[in-house]
Amino acid sequence: MKPFPAGPRAALACALLTLAPTAPLAQEASPAAEPAAPPVAATPSAPERAAASSEALVVREPVAATKPVFALGNDSYFVSPILALAGGVAAESLLLSPNPNRESRATTMAITRFGFEGRLGPWVTFRSEFERNIRAHGSGIWEGTASMSVRDQVVRLQRWGASVEVGIVLDPASVDFVSAHVGDLLMADRYTRDPLLYSGFNRGQGVQLRYAFLPGLTAGLGYTEANPLSSSASFMVGGTFAGSTRFWERPLGNFRIGQPDDDFHFRVVSPSLSYEHPLFDVKAMAQLFDVNYQASQRVDPRLGGFNVRANARLKLEGKAPFPFKVQPFVNFARVENQVLNNTSGYADTLLQTHFSAVSVSGGVDLLLLGRSGVGVSYAQVRDRSPSFVPPSGTAPASERINRTVQSYLNVGGTLWVTEHVALGARVARFARDLDGTPYEADLSYMLTLRMAL
Predict the structure, then answer these.
(1) Does 441 have pLDDT greater than 70?
(2) Which residues have CB under 8 Å from 47's CB, separation 6+?
(3) E strands of 98-144, at which residues?
(4) Residue from 130, 122, 114 nearest 70 by CA
(5) Cα 349 vs. chain centroid, distance in angstroms?
(6) Which conformational region is residue 174 in: left (phi greater than 0), alpha (psi within -120 to 50 degrees), or beta?
(7) Of 218, 306, 332, 417, which is least packed with CB atoms within 10 Å of its CB?
(8) What value, to the nearest 5°, has the Cα angle with vertex 276 and ends 233 and 181?
(9) Torsion (CA) 55, 234, 285, 314 in degrees, nearest 10
(10) What is the CATH number of the domain that holds 380?
(11) Percentage, residues of the chain above pLDDT 90
(12) pLDDT value at 366 more than 60
């Protein structure tokens, strides 16, 4: 399994493009709730907190509504540690590879997330989290030096049903519904991570506003304006960028004093609506973005684009012969953006054809006796990327479409042996069909053990 590219580029790419841990801590109270902290005795158990929603696998808003078990302080002022560890064995089988000499292999893997979160009175919460990356084939550590990422670094002010967050924040409306039983590696492998990123998952440096104006109904607005690597939303922007097929790859091409190229600027504004009901959840979002490809000069054109997203999940329960929950879910996203003409002699012009991509995913979870159970998920990403063919002789200029189809299948099972420790087993398949290149497919089998406070 190769979840991340090798080399120094990966360390920067993973810093803002990896996902949140599979932690069973409580979600924060709804913004509509009165922010005064309830007594410690009201804190639900870990299984009660995590059994209800597979989305909690990814979304971790700061901070627990009540004082967690592992915390220092009182009900209104406390600090709690963040710690999640996962490891295991993955056997990779290359079914079809563009490189016929490449061999299958087995890999022992490890990933760790750590930090702290807390509450400062009735209106202020904070969260600071870091990660030791999993990296490709266990390459996260070399000669004792860990490959680290900075994750959530957020301060949240909440009052009268409204909240504002600043720092490196996660927009919950940008997160697809996912299976709770495929997160055995904390959603950090390419089989689970990449489909979320292609659909517009947004953890990034910025400001986020949310307001719960009706029970269960929340409006949100996110804003980021910085280098493309400041937000994982740049992962969805496609086209041809001086040899790179995705926009976020381009700033990593050049390094100056250990830093990525700063000639690029990325702005994204994300209005959203979310509705939570005991029987179903729905979300809708529009992500409007603007790309300044060369901030060092004024003559280059700006690249505009948008991404529209919709997500839905049912939450069904039964009691015969024992309590169980069934949660089917479906996600849809469509992105479109302008593309720069990189052909020599056509500088500072745009192609007439836009880049477009459609991401569709879905699946179902079966939860048995709490959080244990099985789940399946499937995602497909279809890209249409234009390229320019200059005129030759009597043939006029044309814009050729290159099509790519990527698919991700995960089937997993989870057994929680304690409130904080789980055994996991998963089979994952990846396939890529790119115009003009050989078909690619691989299959991985994973056995893992994870712990989350």
Answers:
(1) yes
(2) 24, 370, 371, 416, 419
(3) 105-120, 124-132, 141-142
(4) 114
(5) 32
(6) alpha
(7) 417
(8) 65
(9) -20
(10) 2.40.160
(11) 46
(12) yes
129 and 115 Cβ atoms separated by less than 8 Å: yes
| Whole-angstrom distance, CA of residue 220 vs CA of residue 62 | 16
With vertex at residue 443, the alpha carbon angle to CA 189 and CA 418, rounded to the nearest 5 degrees, is 55
> Residue 108 forms beta bridges with which residues?
89
pTM assigned to the model: 0.83
Our CA dihedral for 344, 346, 349, 351, rounded to 10 degrees, sits at: -80
For residue 80, being part of any structural domain is answered with no
Domain of 341, in residue numbers: 86-108+155-452
Mean model confidence pLDDT for the chain: 81
Amino acid at 157: L
How many structural domains does the chain have?
1
Tell which residue, 412, 417, 336, 338, has the closest CA to residue 370. Answer: 417
The beta strand positions in 259-323, using DSSP E, are 259-260, 265-276, 280-292, 303-314, 316-318
Contact call for residues 342 and 350 (beta carbons, < 8 A): no
Average pLDDT over residues 34-49: 37
Please compute the mean of the pLDDT values over residues 111-139 and round it to a whole number: 88
In a domain, 378, yes or no: yes
Cα dihedral 366, 367, 371, 373 sign: negative
Dig out the tokens for 26 from the structure.
Answer: 């409580």
- What does the pLDDT average to over 199-205? 93
Tokens 């078909």 -> residue: 439
- Residue 76 placed within a domain: no
Pick the range with the lowest mean pLDDT from 10-24, 308-322, 431-445. Answer: 10-24
Helices (H) and strands (E) in the chain, counts: 3, 24
Q: Six-digit token pair at 442? A: 């691989």
Per the CB < 8 A criterion, the answer to whether 86 and 114 are in contact is: no
Structure tokens at 185: 């590696």
